[in-house]
Amino acid sequence: MPRIHECRGGEPQGDDAASLVARHAELDASFWIEHGDAVLEVSHIRFGAEGFFCQWHERVGHGVLAAIRGAGGHGLALAFDGGGNPLVIDGGCAVDRAAAVAIIERFLHDGGRSEVAPWGAGIVRTCMDDETGWVLEEIGEPREPRGWLPAGFRSALGGPLDPALPQTASWRVLSEVLVCDVAWLAPLAATPMPCLRRMIVDAGDDSLEALVAAVAAAPVLEELVVVGAAVQRLPPLVSRSLRRIWLALGGTIDPEDEPEPGWDAAVAAALARCDLPALQSASIEVNVDAGVEL
Fold first, then answer.
1. Beta-bridge mates of residue 275
2. Which of 2, 145, 259, 261 has its CA 20 to 30 A from that of 191?
3. Which residues of the chain have pLDDT under 50?
4. Do residues 195 and 136 make contact, with C-beta atoms less than 8 angstroms apart?
5. pLDDT recorded at residue 165
6. Tell me: the pLDDT tens digits for 154-186?
């Protein structure tokens, strides 16, 4: 016999699929069902994608874990399940109410997987896991965004170029990235991060020409921070989404290494040549310690 559990404790009201879906849609909650060695987990999702997120796994063997993957497109969405846990899902992973009921009905019947939607590895990332090649830092909290930027995941790009990283799940879900080597700007342009909203570039004195394509390719980028002497040669940027730019010449300025005369006017002129219709604020600093948050 199947056993039904609620993440918030207590006895579920109703043990049929329609009752379970209706109850947890109203509560924005999650539940799971055990049937033999199989487990079906269901979460109601409203943040980023409306619908029901389903996971199926076995408690024995290789422990395969799969999620619903819808047939119509993928559009990544940052979402929170009913338990307050951040999940990054394919938009198609959130199935509608009718599909969720059908999936649960089949599982209650024999512990099997309904074919109303194809099954695939739709879940990308949970808050506690790190993927090989990445060190992820969680930023923000569910329903409490960090400033005006949404909660999500941050990591750094530096060291030798690794062609495998743009193919990982983490590449697709990072909302904030610290670029420690400008060589990584080319991969950012070639394989844009669909969730990237804040980009910090520690450029030193390297050329920023590759920044133009990286910024133009980022579909939802809202904030850009550039640190280093290279800001004195900022190229014209184009972005429909960028709202804030913070430019800092570098760290504590050594008296023997002063900026070029008129550098601030040059940077201001470069900003004026940018095509940034959504821009709300731009800051120019000599000292990164003056307030740029890295």
1. 238
2. 145
3. 9, 61-65, 69-76, 84, 121-129, 141-148, 252-256, 290-292
4. no
5. 87
6. 889 988 899 888 877 678 778 899 999 999 999
Q: What is the pLDDT of residue 79?
A: 54
Phi then psi for residue 152, to 5 deg, are 170, -145
pLDDT at 68: 59
Rounded distance, CA 67 to CA 86, Å? 15
Name all contacts of 258-263 with Cβ < 8 Å and 24+ positions apart: 259/229, 259/232, 259/286, 260/232, 263/232
* Integer Cα distance of 74 and 99 in angstroms: 17
